[in-house]
Amino acid sequence: MNYEHVPCIICKSFDTTLRFSKPWGDDEVFTLVRCKHCGLEFVNPRPFYNDMPQYYKGYFDKRTDRGYSDYFSKAMQTEVLRLLALNLADLNFYEFESTLPDTRYALDIGCAAGYFVDYMAKRGWKSSGIDIAPDCINYATTKLHVDAYCDDFLTFNFTNTYHLITLWATIEHLHYPDRFLEKIFSLLHDDGLLYISTCRSSIWSPRILFGKRWRYYNFPHHLYFFSYATLAKLLQLKGFTITRFATYGSGIGKAGSTIRTVADGLAKKLYLGDMMLIAAKKQKHTFNC
To answer: Which residues have a Cβ under 8 Å from the Cβ of 121 and sit 6 or more positions away?
Structure first.
């Protein structure tokens, strides 16, 4: 198997510190590095983009220590929408929505089975999604009958600008988060918002309790691990300003247990969650004569 070595997408530097390595299968090992200049953590070296489909076989329908047991089940749809509703509330989406014209456009990048695209369409939005997973887009278009495309976001020709663009648990999977943000900037309405949810690589989160066993260290599905500072820096470089920030999730205890409920509540209240939510808008540039 061939791999590519890449520089930090923020600093453009190859000057990194080795964090640790984890095996994939029987004969592959992936390594997490940390940029010495900005602190961004990312997998390096990594598989080439065109080789990634082999790592996602069974990702949506076969639960191991990665992926989902059945992403297309009604129970999963209900859980996804429950979580997204909480995220929207944390990001003040409903207040933002009330300020928009009657005709408003939303784009969900990495839309998977299209659950959020369907949710927004039912709220009256002109809602679309895009993903590279054929089985997901097939479900979105044939079961939910939403506007979704199986294609590469970076090469797809969009004809609209959007009041809301979302990257729900997507940016950590991308080979080129920097290029995605550049294109998102060109597609976002001047008064629109970008929403991002992603795992949070911070010393102020439960991540430090788990070390390399942290639940989001899934290499090579997850390639980038942002802290608030590194994601804010990348967004700033690409023309965005953060307008809202929240965290949630702890990974402590079993799902549904009392200890998980208490830990999750404290993590959210104290901004210690190992997932983070970001709302960002285009920077407003002023010029003094």
So the answer is: 127, 146, 147
Q: 3-282: what fold?
A: Rossmann fold (3.40.50)
What is the spatial distance between Cα 140 and Cα 229, in angstroms, rounded to a whole number? 35
| 208-230 pLDDT per residue, tens | 999 999 999 999 999 999 999 99
Task: Kindly tell me the sign of the dihedral angle through the C-alpha atoms of 58, 61, 67, 71.
Answer: positive
Domain range summary for the chain, segments of one domain joined by +:
3-282
Q: How far apart are CA 219 and CA 198, in angstroms?
A: 15
Tokens of 123: 């709220």
- Provide CB contacts within 8 A for 250, sequence distance 6+: 206, 260, 263, 264, 266, 267, 272, 273, 274
Spacing of C-alpha 285 from chain mean position: 27
- Residue-wise pLDDT for 93-125, tens only, equals 999 999 999 999 999 999 999 999 999 999 999
